# Entry
Amino acid sequence: MQWARRIKLGKLSHLYDLAKIGIYDDDLLLEVGWGLYARCQSVLTVTNAVNKGKLPCPRCDQIVYRPVKHTQYLERKAKSVTHREPRFSCPTCKQELTWIDCQEALFSHPKCFIRACQQPLELSYSEDKLRCNACGREWMRLDYGRSVRKRKLLPCPHCGSMIRRPNRIKQDAHTADGSSTPTSGKYPCPRCLEFSGTHTSGKFQCLQCGYEQSWKSYRRRSERLKCSSCGYEFTWNSWRQQYRGKNLFVGNIPAVEEFLSGWPGCRTPRKQLVQIDTLLHALHARGSIAPAFLAGNADTVMELLDRLAQQR
# Structure
């Protein structure tokens, strides 16, 4: 797949310098705006693949679903309703949140757990480790995720102040031996091809034909994908290798979706600049995701966004 390139900082800076003196460069506005639009589409594609198990076929762009990941996504949506995750306000910035919001912010943009540090972590793909360049602490990526799920204190995704987990209205059900009850979702069986499989006690079991295998083996097998439209077969690993190292996964993407829905309807230069500015304001607030859209490292990107914020 061809991923859209990031926007050069020089073009963005020039666009705002002209706007500051009341000049709208139509060509530059469209170049930057549609460039951000294309980049947002690429980011949304990767984020949906990672979070929701929905990815386009490399050959025909038809949506292909990763069976396990997509089922887990649907389960999380249903679970958030049945367990009524309470909403609460951050004591510091007063933003309304759920505990899942705090967790997903760390999954999307990992931060150091040391309370006095809380700096963004850098992912080493070769070692599958998360490293803090400020204090030197390291975590294996899977261990970091487990820790996020278990912690009772997490930072607010908006202001960074530490928040204690509120009590849920209804707790997860557990079996007598302490293990989680089988998930309510159904997974496709590799033998009978029906969505009648369940995950329980580390095993995949099909309720239709009785087929069983270890959950680990089932996960590995289910990552072999086939497009129902063109018949092309590929693996999840081969698909994700296309975006690795291109800084395309940002996790929480409401600002991306807002820009994608709003930009095509902007008919005047002023409205176009406002739409661009709204996206940049959101990226500035999030900080660590800005380099996914703008060419440069974290320091140079934030330096430009700080300067543009002062011009508003």
